[in-house]
Amino acid sequence: MKRLFYLLPFIYFQAPAQTDTIKIYFNIGAFEASTQELLKLDVKKSDWQKVDLISYTDYLGSEKFNKQLSKYRSREIRSRLVQYGLNTAILGVVKGKGITGQKLQTSAGIQENRRTDVIITKNTSTLNAGVREAKKELSENLKQIEEVELKSQIESASIGDQLILSNMTFLPGQHFLTKSSLAAYDELFQTIKQNPELKIKIEGHICCKIDNEDGLDLATNKFNLSEARAKYIYDILIKDGISPKHLSYEGFARNNPLFPLERTEEEKTANRRVEIRIIEK
C-alpha cells in the first residue's frame, strides 16, 4: 500500500483598485453559503484597509422574514472571514437590507438578489500591467498542472492506496478547514465529480497527542477531532452534490502519524491531516 502526496501551490495577484466588491450568493431561504461561494473569499488580505458587509434577499417570503435573513447572511460571512483570519479591527458596516430589486411571479426568485456584498477598501497597488499579466499566466498554467496531477494520481492509484492532500489543513483544535484549503477542497470535489466510478474513504488524523486517544474538538467540546475532520469533508462533499454512495469516513486519532516525534511545526501540521483512501475506481 502506498501514500501519494498531492501538493497544491497557491498564487495570488491583484489589479490596482481602491475598492473591490465580492458577491457571495445564497440558495433560497439560506444564510449559509456553499463551499464554491466561500472560495471567493480565498484572497490576499494584507492590503485590506476596511471591509463592509451588506446583504440582500429576493422577494420570496415576507418583508420581516427577509430583513432578518439578510442580517443572518452578513453575520455568517463575517464569521467566515474571521475564521479565515480577518482582523476584526478592519470590519466596518455589517448589516442586512432585506428585499432588493424587482418582483417577478415565479417561485424561483432572483439569484442575483440573494447575496452578500463584501465591499473591500484597499491600498492602491503599484503593480504594473506587465507583472500582473505574467503572474496571471503563471497562475493559469499552474492550475492546469494541478488538475492533471490530481487526475493522474487517482488514475494510477491502486485499490487501497491513500492520497494525502497536503494543502487541506485545519484550524488547530477544530474540524473546520483553513481559508487556504478551500481551493484544495474544490480540486477534490471536481475530481470526484469527474470520476463517477470512484469511491473513497476520508480518513482523519490529528497531531500533538502523547497517547493515541482522539483530540478535543474546540468547536463542539467533544473528543472526536479526527473523526470530526473526516466527517466535515464528507458532509460538505454531499452538500455540494456528491452522492453518499461514493463516500465514507473514519477518524484515526494519532494512531498513524507521518512524523511520530513531531520535532517541528511543519511536522505537526503534516500530522494534522486528512487522507483519501481509494475504495473503488
Structure description:
The chain has 281 residues and is α/β, with parallel strands linked by helices. The protein folds into 2 domains: 19-122, 2-Layer Sandwich (60s Ribosomal Protein L30, Chain: A); 129-280, OmpA-like domain (60s Ribosomal Protein L30, Chain: A, 2-Layer Sandwich), CATH 3.30.1330. It contains 6 helices and 9 strands, in the order ββαβαββαβαβαβαβ. The strands form 2 sheets. Strands 1-6-9-7-8 form a 5-stranded mixed β-sheet. Strands 2-5-3-4 form a 4-stranded mixed β-sheet. Strand 7 (199-204), helix 5 and strand 8 (247-251) form a beta-alpha-beta unit. 27% of the residues are buried.
Ordered list of secondary-structure elements with their pairings:
Elements: E1 3-6, E2 19-25, H1 35-38, E3 48-57, H2 63-83, E4 91-99, E5 115-122, H3 129-156, E6 162-165, H4 182-194, E7 199-204, H5 225-239, E8 247-251, H6 265-271, E9 274-280
Parallel strand pairs: 1-6, 3-4, 7-8
Antiparallel strand pairs: 2-5, 3-5, 6-9, 7-9
Write a brief structural summary.
The chain is of the alpha/beta class and 281 residues long. The chain contains 6 helices and 9 strands; from the N terminus they run ββαβαββαβαβαβαβ. It has helices at 35-38, 63-83, 129-156, 182-194, 225-239, 265-271; strands spanning 3-6, 19-25, 48-57, 91-99, 115-122, 162-165, 199-204, 247-251, 274-280.
